[in-house]
Design goal:
The chain is of the alpha+beta class. 33% of the residues lie in helices and 28% in strands. The protein is built from four helices and six strands, in the order H-E-H-H-E-E-E-E-E-H. It has helices at 19-32, 59-75, 82-90, 168-190, and strands at residues 41-44, 94-105, 114-124, 130-139, 144-157, 162-163. Strands 1, 2, 3, 4, 5 and 6 form a six-stranded antiparallel beta sheet that branches. Strand 3 (114-124) and strand 4 form a beta hairpin. The protein is globular. The model is unreliable at 1-5 and 8-13 (pLDDT under 50).
Length: 191
């Protein structure tokens, strides 16, 4: 994976010589596990994200998952009509909303650090209006996964304020990404 194939903020470039190696390790781990490469995004931890205990407060992980989820939705335009993907991203007509979310914290994170955030779609539910995403947060300083999570998403029609069925374009795009993750994970596991 080239360093430009996923979102990395230009702010605070790392002076740490271990940063490129830590990034490569995090990306390799996420790819081995079948995470969706186009959705990878980096986040530089700010001092203000820490709480009085000196580590990133747990509420910020919801934002990290949101960053990954929103970037994943932005990248759906490669697999469906661009206008439909943009409407979903902006919450016009039918959009994607979070129904539930769980987080498993693995290690504390401190400022300064850079995190790799990755998501993968894992399950399209039979009612064709819901799907799950798995989340991974990898710390470059810790060189380890610091959080994992799972979220259930619902397609929602904002015009009538109700859950909506998954149209064929959305279903096809999500099924493609689920399958790509499975294949990618299997191929990487052989290496």
């Amino acid at each position: 994976m080239s360093s430009s194939s996923f979102k990395s903020p230009s702010l605070w470039p790392s002076n740490d010589p271990a940063h490129p190696a830590a990034r490569a390790e995090g990306v390799a781990l996420a790819l081995r596990e079948g995470f969706d490469e186009p959705s990878f995004v980096e986040h530089h931890v700010t001092w203000g994200e820490q709480d009085r205990f000196g580590h990133v407060n747990n509420t910020h992980y919801l934002r990290y998952f949101e960053m990954g989820r929103m970037h994943f939705i932005e990248t759906l335009d490669r697999d469906m009509p661009r206008e439909l993907a943009q409407d979903m991203h902006k919450g016009r007509n039918v959009g994607i909303i979070v129904a539930s979310l769980s987080i498993q914290f693995k290690r504390p994170v401190n400022h300064p650090d850079t995190l790799l955030i990755a998501v993968r779609p894992t399950n399209l539910l039979p009612d064709r209006s819901r799907f799950t995403l798995e989340h991974l947060v990898y710390s470059y300083d810790e060189r380890a996964v610091v959080a994992r999570g799972e979220s259930l998403h619902v397609l929602f029609d904002y015009r009538i304020n109700k859950r909506a069925p998954m149209g064929p374009e959305v279903q096809k795009a999500l099924e493609k990404r689920v399958e790509e993750g499975r294949v990618q994970g299997k191929e990487r596991a052989k290496l």
